[in-house]
């Protein structure tokens, strides 16, 4: 989309880095240090820096200044100190880059975004944990209810089957009068007690299953909030990425075999959406 | 239908899914079911012997379903064990990878009791039991 923009940005950034790195390595007279207060002022003007970040910046400044001084004083002894000056250069450079990143993010307003992200993510994490918790509870309630109800249904089935065979025997004239009286009594007891008790107990479990669905309302609300947060973060992070990633990197996609459920299969040809398609694919491959 | 006493191992990191598969298998007449919560535990149980069928998820911690399948196929004593995958992974390359690794069947979640019954029957038919 904005390749030209971004490459412009990144070449500017590169030039900035180069000038800073150049300043550190070559000249003790720092154009960077002069530049910095103005950046800070910019950030202060635009962002209303907090006490904390002002303290942080003072700390940065003091460290950078100290590094400058020591770099300046040790410059003469480079040969005798062997590798140390090189390492010091690297440290200084890393420090400069961290500082630069801090300032750049501040100047672009990304520090606020990152702050917001950092505070929003634990919240989203808690919300998602809440959803996982409620859905798991619901699944357990439903499975428990079926565990209770299934044997009740099996008892009804078995009781009815037993009585049916006895009634069949009666209709086949294979039953004496005493047995018939017994059967009549059993049947009456089955209809008056066994059946109503078990249907009532089963109904209770059906109610339990119905009530277990109450998570849908609660999780639905929480999910909507997390989705809104994710969309917000995506938009903002995308804008950073578009600003900073070179064009050719953007088309690289991650391929993995562990993706979880396909959430939106619309317009995708690399996924299946039904068991039938799985079977067809396997058939077509000869499996 | 296959021997109802057949010992089946159900592998999934979610206990609710293990319970659902266990209940469905019971409904189909297979009550001799054991569970494992990831591929590594499953492999240990399988190596101890006695299992005749494996139903496994794909995405699990420690050892995933594909790794489990590959480990089964490369262990001589387990190589012939039928392995049915029940997974949410629905990319074509997943299905192909599973088939190439020697999966006996592939079911995508969410699935129905009828699908499970059908795939089991298909595998039993191929096994000639």
Largest interface: A-B, 24 and 25 residues
Going by CATH, the homologous superfamily of chain B would be: Response regulator
CATH 4th-level superfamily of the largest domain in chain A? Helix hairpin bin
Strand elements of chain B, count: 5
Broad shape of chain A? elongated
Class computed from helices, strands and strand pairing of chain B: alpha/beta
Number of E-type strands of chain A:
0
Oligomer state of the chains in this structure: heterodimer
Estimated helix fraction of chain A: over 70%
Overall pLDDT score of chain B: 93
CATH topology of the largest domain in chain A: Helix Hairpins
Biggest β-sheet: strands ordered side by side in the sheet of chain B: 2-1-3-4-5
Mean pLDDT of chain A: 76
CATH architecture of chain B: 3-Layer(aba) Sandwich
**Total helical elements of chain A:** 8
Q: Tell me the number of structural domains of chain B.
A: 1
Pick out the low-confidence regions of chain A.
1-8, 25-49, 74-79
**Biggest beta-sheet profile of chain B:** 5 strands, parallel
Shape, per Cα inertia axes of chain B? globular
Q: For the CA atoms, what is the radius of gyration of chain B?
A: 13 Å
Considering the chains and any ligands shown, give keywords for the structure.
A: 287 residues; mainly alpha; Helix Hairpins; 2 domains; 8 helices; 79% helix; elongated; B: alpha/beta; Rossmann fold; 5 helices; 5 strands
Describe this structure in words.
The complex is a heterodimer of chains A (287) and B (129). Chain A folds into 2 domains: 106 residues, no CATH class; 131 residues, Helix Hairpins. In chain A, helix 2 runs parallel beside helix 4. With 287 residues, chain A is mostly helical. Chain A is built from 8 helices and no strands. Chain A is elongated, with a radius of gyration of 37 Å. Helix content of chain B is 43%, strand content 16%. A 5-stranded parallel beta sheet of chain B has the order 2-1-3-4-5, sandwiched between helices. Chain B has one domain: Response regulator (Rossmann fold, 3-Layer(aba) Sandwich). Chain B is of the alpha/beta class. In chain B, strand 4, helix 4 and strand 5 form a beta-alpha-beta unit. Chain B is built from 5 helices and 5 strands, in the order E-H-E-H-E-H-E-H-E-H. Chains A and B meet through helix 5 and helix 8 of A and helix 1, helix 4 and strand 5 of B.
């Amino acid at each position: 989309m904005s390749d030209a923009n971004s490459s412009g940005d990144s070449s500017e950034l590169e030039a900035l880095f180069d000038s800073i790195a150049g300043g550190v390595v070559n000249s003790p007279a720092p154009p960077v240090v002069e530049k910095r207060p103005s950046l800070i002022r910019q950030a202060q003007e635009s962002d209303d820096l907090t006490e904390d970040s002002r303290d942080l910046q003072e700390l940065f400044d003091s460290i950078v200044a100290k590094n400058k001084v020591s770099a300046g004083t040790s410059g003469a002894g480079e040969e005798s100190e062997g590798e140390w000056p090189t390492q010091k250069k690297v440290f200084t450079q890393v420090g400069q880059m961290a500082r630069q990143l801090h300032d750049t993010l501040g100047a672009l307003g990304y520090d606020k975004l990152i702050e917001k992200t950092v505070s929003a993510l634990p919240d989203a994490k808690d919300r998602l944990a809440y959803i996982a918790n409620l859905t798991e509870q619901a699944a357990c309630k439903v499975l428990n209810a079926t565990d209770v109800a299934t044997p009740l249904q099996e008892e009804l089935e078995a009781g009815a089957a037993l009585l049916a065979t006895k009634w069949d025997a009666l209709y086949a004239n294979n039953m004496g009068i005493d047995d018939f009286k017994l059967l009549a009594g059993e049947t009456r007891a089955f209809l008056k007690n066994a059946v109503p008790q078990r249907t009532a107990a089963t109904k209770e479990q059906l109610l339990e299953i119905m009530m277990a669905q109450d998570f849908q309302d609660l999780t639905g609300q929480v999910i909507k909030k997390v989705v809104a947060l994710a969309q917000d973060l995506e938009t903002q992070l995308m804008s950073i990425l578009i600003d900073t990633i070179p064009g050719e990197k953007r088309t690289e996609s991650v391929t993995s075999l562990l993706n979880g459920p396909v959430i939106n299969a619309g317009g995708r040809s690399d996924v299946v959406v039904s068991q039938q398609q799985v079977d067809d694919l396997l058939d077509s491959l000869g499996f | 239908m296959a021997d109802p006493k057949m010992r089946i191992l159900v592998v999934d990191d979610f206990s609710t899914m293990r319970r659902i598969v266990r209940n469905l298998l019971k409904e189909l007449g297979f009550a001799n079911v054991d569970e494992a919560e990831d591929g590594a535990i499953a492999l240990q149980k399988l190596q101890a012997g006695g299992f005749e069928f494996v139903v496994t998820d794909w995405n699990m911690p420690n050892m995933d379903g594909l790794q489990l399948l590959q480990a089964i196929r490369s262990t001589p004593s387990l190589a012939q064990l039928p392995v049915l995958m029940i997974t949410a992974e629905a990319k074509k390359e997943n299905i192909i990878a599973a088939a190439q690794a020697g999966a006996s069947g592939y079911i995508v979640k969410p699935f129905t009791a009828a699908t499970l019954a059908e795939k089991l029957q298909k595998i039993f038919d191929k096994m000639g039991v």
